[in-house]
Amino acid sequence: MSEDLPRRIGFWGGSAIMVGIIIGSGIFATPPVIAKYMGSPALILGLWVVGGVLSLFGALVYAELATMFPRSGGMYVYLNEGLGSRVAFTFGWTYLLLSKPFAAAAISDILATHINELFNISMSRQMISAVVIVVLTVINVVTVKGSSIMAMVLTSLKVLALAAIVGLGVLLAKGSSTNFSTAPRQLSAWVAIAPVMYGILWTYDGWADVSAISGEVNEPARQLPRILLVGISATILLYVAVNAIYFSLVPIDEMGNLKTVAPLVMERLIGPKGAKVVTAIIVISTLGAGHAAILTGARVTFAQARDGLLFRFLGRVHPQFQTPDVSLWAQAALSMIAIFFWGKFEDLAEGYGFTLWIFHALVAASVLVLRRRRPDVERPYKCWGYPWVPIVFIVICVGMTVAYIANDPKKTLPWLGVLFLGLPAHALWKWRTKSSERNMSP
Asked: Cα 359 from chain centroid?
């Protein structure tokens, strides 16, 4: 078997996968939630920039590690190199059982809901979600190059759709500058910043997943920093512009009473058909996010199995398609279990969101550890602003974790328990491995 998967993904394909994961349903659903907490459109727009910059800090951290260790597996590889197999195993355990299956299931649930709305049907959301996951998994098993092309097509469509909202808002000039006036809120701005940043950073989440396919990117030392930095920068510009158009057309008090703002914006721009247009946009957006999540998620399980920290069959490379087919199907099976047992997006999202911020902090800590312990390792790209950028990023990750738990401890603590079960599971796995080696020795 080859040491890693073939390098078939270029700059545009990698950028499309990254942006495809970031831009999902959040940009449509998060602005009304933020409007409930904070009444200043100008301050909110500023915080969208801040959220993007903080995500950029994370991208700078990951760029150093991705070019040092350009192998499939992303976060798992960095934690293994920086903090050891116990932490890496715990991450891989959580990622396999919780993070990626629940993420794929949650995205598919949103997609299923909007497919029913778009076509005026009432099919089972679980069945639609399951079919979507199977179809996207087949595509990812059959071809990496085709998956990369599909990511580029879907990402281009969703970016063009959001750009169209901005373009129509500017060209038709139906907005009003008076909508940018500050409205009173019960919470002070300082108190409201925590939940607002929670929503903004959640909407930016997904930028790190491109590191999972580092082993399949052409010229990784040159391409990976460009993919991370260009992808985040483009997303910041798009998010700020879209939110500015939202505010110009919908007063902030009205926005705070909506579930999603884009349908009303499009209705005020192009008439009653606008809601259908936005529904189609959300279908395309979530389809792209689901495809990219499936593509990247299986690479962590694949890398962990290759290192002997999971069952070896999960590290299989398909002899014809050169893809991690077993890991992809294992991820699909776990995603479908999540769909049929948990079902709703809210329950699925709460099951995976906050655990990733714990591991983001540990990845940033790995940069600090590796700079001290392994200073001679070649670093084609060094994190700008070291050590303050990693430190600030760690503080933000810890804050996000605390915010998740404080928001609903009854729902988040059980998932934290799944994470910590990875520690005894690692000890059991090491014991099993040593026992097998002793039995095989002459």
From this structure: 13
Q: What is the DSSP string of 364-426?
A: HHHHHHHHHH-TTS--SS--TTTTHHHHHHHHHHHHHHHHHHHH-HHHHHHHHHHHHTHHHHH
pLDDT band at 353 (very low <50, low <70, confident <90, very high): low
Residue 392's pLDDT is 93
Measure the CA–CA gap between 434 and 315, rounded to whole angstroms.
20
Q: Is residue 24 part of a domain?
A: yes
Indicate which CATH number applies to the domain containing 50: 1.20.1740.10
Helix locations, 98-219, DSSP H: 100-119, 125-142, 144-172, 189-204
d(CA 369, CA 432): 29
| Residue among 357, 292, 370 at smallest CA distance from 64 | 370
Number of separate domains in the chain: 1
Closest residue by Cα to residue 5 from 299, 403, 201: 299
Can you give the pLDDT at residue 2?
42
Whether 239 is in a domain gets the answer: yes
| Domain annotation covers residue 439 | no
Which residues are paired to 9 by β-bridges?
217
Q: Is residue 247 part of a domain?
A: yes
pLDDT score for 438: 59
Question: In the predicted model, what is the mean pLDDT of residues 40-52?
Answer: 93
CB atoms within 10 A of CB 361: 20
Which residue pairs from 137-141 have beta carbons closer than 8 angstroms and sit at least 24 positions apart in sequence? 137/294, 137/328, 137/329, 137/331, 137/332, 139/291, 140/291, 140/294, 140/295, 140/298, 140/323, 140/328, 141/318, 141/321, 141/323, 141/325, 141/328, 141/329
CA pair distance 40, 315, nearest whole angstrom: 51
pTM to 2 decimals?
Answer: 0.80
Question: Rounded mean pLDDT of 150-163?
Answer: 81
- Quote the domain boundaries for residue 332: 11-431
For residue 403, what pLDDT is reported?
A: 75
- Separation CA 335–CA 44 (nearest Å): 35
Q: What is the pLDDT of residues 84-103, one digit of tens each?
A: 999 999 998 888 887 777 77
Give the HSE-up count for residue 177: Cα atoms under 13 Å, Cβ half-sphere. Answer: 0
Check if the beta carbon of residue 255 is closer than 8 Å to that of residue 261. yes
